[in-house]
Amino acid sequence: MITLALSKGRIFEETVPLLRGAGIEVLDDPERSRKLILATNRPEVRVVIVRATDVPTYVQYGGADVGVTGLDTLIEHGADWGGGAGLYQPLDLGIAKCRVSVAVRADFDYASAVRQGSRLRVATKYVNIAREFFAAKGVHVDLIKLYGSMELAPLTGLADAIVDLVSTGNTLKANQLVEVERIMDISSRLVVNQAALKLKQQAIRSVIDAFAAATKATA
Length: 219
Ligand code: AMP
What we know:
The chain is of the alpha/beta class and 219 residues long. The protein has 2 domains: 2-97 and 187-217, D-Maltodextrin-Binding Protein, domain 2, CATH 3.40.190.10; 98-185, D-Maltodextrin-Binding Protein, domain 2, CATH 3.40.190. It has helices at residues 10-21, 55-60, 71-80, 110-115, 127-137, 152-156, 170-174, 194-199, 201-218, and strands spanning 2-6, 37-39, 45-49, 66-70, 87-92, 98-105, 120-124, 141-145, 161-166, 177-186, 188-193. The strands form 2 sheets. It has a 6-stranded mixed sheet. A 5-stranded mixed sheet has the order 8-7-9-6-10. Strand 7 (120-124), helix 5 (127-137) and strand 8 (141-145) form a beta-alpha-beta unit. Helix 1 (10-21) packs across helix 9. Residues 10, 70, 96, 98, 164-171 line the site of adenosine monophosphate. Heteromultimer composed of HisG and HisZ subunits. It catalyses: 1-(5-phospho-beta-D-ribosyl)-ATP + diphosphate = 5-phospho-alpha-D-ribose 1-diphosphate + ATP. Its EC number is 2.4.2.17.
């Protein structure tokens, strides 16, 4: 049995066509069903639905053999868990593309604040990515860890800036925020448990190959 960890939302929706391309149909919709383990048309493949930030953990400790996770989540996880030990990362799936950026209120002069060496309050879910980025720039920051609705932080005076995912930029615009730095481009990656790769080599190789072929076909 091969267990594939996915999170609900964009990653699930964009992985389904790749699975379909690989001849794997998920037999339930996680948006409609409360089931956490979803069968597929292939008796040897099942999907487990976990929180996006838990996908690397499930795969690292063998709760799932393979998983699909954003590079953002993988980097944050890796920084907390010694470089994501035990996780093999064979493929960029090219899905759920976005970027990690710094954004501020439209009336906040970020460039001047940086030039003057001001200490910035930065709210983010991505504390490791943010810490590294501002350290490399030589900007002093106080990081405030949030778990969601980062856009609210500059609007309420909680922070001067946020570090968050941006895709179309519509969410920033709707909240009168502007993107002032692009930290990195993000897409989703296939991750594989290294022990499973050895123990179930053939089955996992065929899943990786099927994902690679489906990724190429939709690129
Ligand atoms: P947008 O308005 O298209 O720029 O999307 C920004 C909002 O969607 C932010 O709240 C992000 O956290 C979220 N978002 C954008 N892209 C992704 C992605 N690939 N994965 C998860 N969340 C995303």
